[in-house]
Amino acid sequence: MNLGQLNIEAFLTRTRGEVTGRVITDAKDRVYQQTYTWVDAGEGFLNVRRADGAGDNVKVGRCVSIDEALIAFFGLYSGDGAKGSEIANAPGRIVPTISFSQREPNLVRFAVDQFRKLFSGDVRFVFSLGEDSAFFMAGEGAVWLDNYYRGEGFAGTPTPRPLTECRCELNNGDRGYLAETRQDVAGMNEEHLAFYYTHKGAMEAILKKVKEGDLARAGVVLRESDRVTASLRRPFKKGARQPGGSSRSDEIHVGGLNGFGEFFLKMLHEIEDSILRDVTRSASGLVEWIGIPSQIGKSLDLRDFFTTNAYGQIARRRPARLEDADAGHLIGQWPRSGETVLLKQLRVDPLWSYTSGLYLAEGTTEKAKLFRMFAESPGSLAIGFTSSEGASLELMLRTLHKLFPVSSCLEAWKVKVGSQYFPELVVTGLKNGVFMLRGGASGDGKLRTMEISLAIKDWALAVADDPLQHVSLLRQHYANNFSHVEPTGAGVARIDFWCSSSLCRWYFPLLMYTVFGDIIAEPCEGFYR
Amino acid sequence: MTTHLFLPGIVLRPTRLMTPYQGYIDAWYRAIQRDAENQDIAASGCLQGAFIDLLLHGRLTFDWVGVAEAYLSGEDGVPLAYSSRYGERLYGFRNQAVQSTIHAIHTRWWLESVRDATTVDHEKYANLLIVRKLRDGLIYDHDVSETILRHRMKTEITASLAYAVEILLAGGRLTGDLRTEFVASLVDHRKCPPSGYVSTEYFRWRVLKMLDATQHFPAGIAEAIQACAVNLNVGYGDFSIADKKDAYMGTAKRVARDKPIHSPLTACHVAALLDAVVSAAEKAPIEQHLGTYRNHLRANPMDIPAFQMRDVPIPFGADKTPIEIICAAWLVGEGVGA
Predict the structure, then answer these.
(1) What average pLDDT does the segment A244-258 reach?
(2) How much is the ipTM here?
């Protein structure tokens, strides 16, 4: 369903081709700016290119229709897409490149299709599988490596050669690696680097084959200009904590769009901002909905949906019970699950569509389960969402409020803090006269020092309020559901909330319908197969 | 003369405070009294309330010991960190909040000592701590936090031992063997390596001082202290931002945008660590830096910042607290170089 449009030509004319914006991700506040020229490409298209002549000629519609899938795609990109890298000599300014991190093959296929739909010209893809080479030191990776060598006529994985033999000339990266210390990792950096260089070619060949297999299974047809590559990091450099540990990342680099990153980010931000503020026209006019976002989109009768729609089933079964609770609510129950109260009507508006994509990127649910749940039992399901940005949290909570009563939407929330911020937590404790006590054997359980958790709670609620003109839903309804601070892994402090598992069986079918309903008619029969 | 291990050099006696400090302290004290009367209290709250009492009146004018006995006592009267109602401040934390920590035990012991030193049963408190001694030769809250030694915060390790040793000494339970074990463990680089954290090293120094073993204090403290002033115009942070690394990646890439903050409490810890700096040449710049900080606080008494997460200008954790205000007041009034 058409819900609005991207006024590409009108926007470029109005801004005289200058695109600028601000992006806050991972608590980094940065700006982007680019100036474009454009010419008519005929048949309703423009050729857009950087004004300085650099970059690609990008073919895009004068006016692009926005439907649920495209909005969901931007939501997906908001979570999984690259926002750009900082310019070395201009701190605080980024140059966006269009690339996308996603492993789940069906989502890869969905993203590829949406890229091709949005950009009609010569868009090409490089599918890259990144892995920490420590993965091949033990476990499944070591078996793959052994099989590879046997296939090449060896008796198994050969012993790594001395570093001086397999890497005669060390580069700066090697020297930096050798100088680093990792307290939790056994062995010497020299040994690890020797392993890396001895088996680099074999490991890359294995990863490439794995990726090609994934793409083939999702029905991604590679065009001549598309490529599959492997990106291998030195052992324990990418995130593996122990031999055999994985830190896999799957990237899609989009070619043919060089120089267009700023414009693409602008589209994304204007879509998100207009939904957040619930306004018909985005600040610059680039996005124009057909009405107030919360009042447009098809309305679903949820009783009909869960009794007749192909997406309204789990493991080929319908809810065991679905009846009126009151004038506005249903009470439903899936087999072997608890009762849940949900609203009778759901409007699939831009908010719902955007957060469907966002959840597919950022939600803590295992993605594969969402694709197979229609045909087979998905096992236990859970809803969880993590973000360091107030806007994303607000949008997700608003979405859940569209489907469930306020009191049942959120069970509890916590703040996860990466290891590089543990000293800040310690100082926060000291300011209150207490020492930081961690939970669990490895220290990544609930923080036991309440004074620190309570101090960080204030930060979290302020983050949730920050992008809004009003009090956030997190503060308004769920301030008392704050559970604890969790020192864990790496990364900036982020807010993590979770919901009752009984909501999953109602929310996920609707989410999948929103994204794929117009693309895949029978989800029970598989997605892109 | 009332002092507390946590607040080095500070004598808690009636002190004339600068107006902004007085205003902050008055407001905080009113709030903590309300919380205490409402049974919604932590041992840390009682402790800071008592600090303020001593700072304003030279004696306890509120029955902090009574509050602790009534609301911060577990089975057999064992001191607890949090009252039952305080435990409700976190969702689903009520059961975990019932915890008897070394900090809680020390707080009760100290409050009783301040109320009437002659009636304190030191042995009772020493017994509560001696049973917590672990096979690694240290005393910390392993029954509350089962985290292995390597992943524990270093300040927790040295501070817990400092609190424990102070009570064991008072209770006459510190034997020669125990002393040797504590010293050996505390300076063992595998268990407690030189950390670069001012607070960790301050408490290590205090333990060794109490055990008459300062000769075992790790070398290089002056350098570590100076590193904690990097990227700060004034004062010291608890850790060196220049040395900050992502523990897993082993690189500084992910911490490049982090900003240090100065802290009056840390400055007090630095001032106490001056005793550990042998060379006058190394001592002089530290004293000078502390003097500059004192002048800065005189001119900007409420410049006591909180951390922030990279570029997002929202306080991450506390900024001003009674402890910071008390330390700032001491630095401004009687601190090093005054």
Answers:
(1) 92
(2) 0.97
Q: Which residue has the tokens 């909905």?
A: A289
Q: Is the dihedral of CA A81, A245, A213, A127 positive or negative?
A: positive
Nearest CA among B228, B229, B227, B222 for reference residue B205: B222
In chain B, what residues touch A88 (CB-CB under 8 Å)?
none
pLDDT the model gives residue A11: 98
Least confident window among A112-116, A479-483, B235-239: A112-116
Chain B, 132 to 161: residues with Cβ < 8 Å from chain A are 141, 144-148, 150-153, 155-156, 159-160
Q: How far apart are CA B250 and CA B261, in angstroms?
A: 23
Closest alpha carbon to B121 in B112, B111, B131, B130: B112
| B310 interface with A at CB cutoff 8 Å | yes
Mean pLDDT, chain A, whole residue set: 94
Averaged pLDDT, B166-173: 96
Which positions in chain A touch B10 (Cβ < 8 Å)?
none
Closest Cα partner for A228 from A129, A130, A127? A127
Cβ of B307 and A427 within 8 Å? Answer: yes
pLDDT reported for residue A339? 93
Degrees, nearest 5: CA angle B304-B310-B315: 35
Query: Does B96 touch chain A if contact means CB atoms closer than 8 Å?
Result: yes
Nearest 5°: the CA angle A427, B330, B113 is: 80
Q: Give residue limits of the domains in chain B.
A: 1-119, 121-214, 219-308+318-338
Contact call for A448 and B314, based on CB within 8 A: no
CA distances from A142 to A137, A204, A214, A228, A250 (A): 5, 13, 20, 22, 20
How far apart are the C-alpha atoms of A136 and A253, rounded to whole Å?
25
Does the pLDDT value for residue B250 go beyond 60? no
% of chain B residues with pLDDT over 90:
91
Name the token pair of A345. Answer: 């009507």
Nearest chain A alpha carbon to B145: A439
Report pLDDT for B248: 53
Distance in angstroms (rounded) separating the CA atoms of residues B188 and B326:
34
The reply to whether A426 touches chain B by the CB within 8 Å rule is yes
Neighbours of B216 (CB within 10 A): 12
Indicate the residue of A418, A433, A491 with minimum beta-carbon distance to B323: A433
Chain A positions in Cβ-Cβ contact with residue B307 (cut-off 8 Å): 424, 427-428
Q: Closest to A434 (Cβ–Cβ): which among B44, B148, B244?
A: B44
So what's the pLDDT on residue B338?
Answer: 45
The two structure tokens encoding residue A44:
């309703």
A71-130 pLDDT, tens digit each: 999 999 999 999 888 887 888 899 998 999 998 989 999 999 999 999 977 799 999 999
Coil, strand or helix at A229: strand
**Do B309 and A388 lie within an 8 Å CB cutoff?**
yes
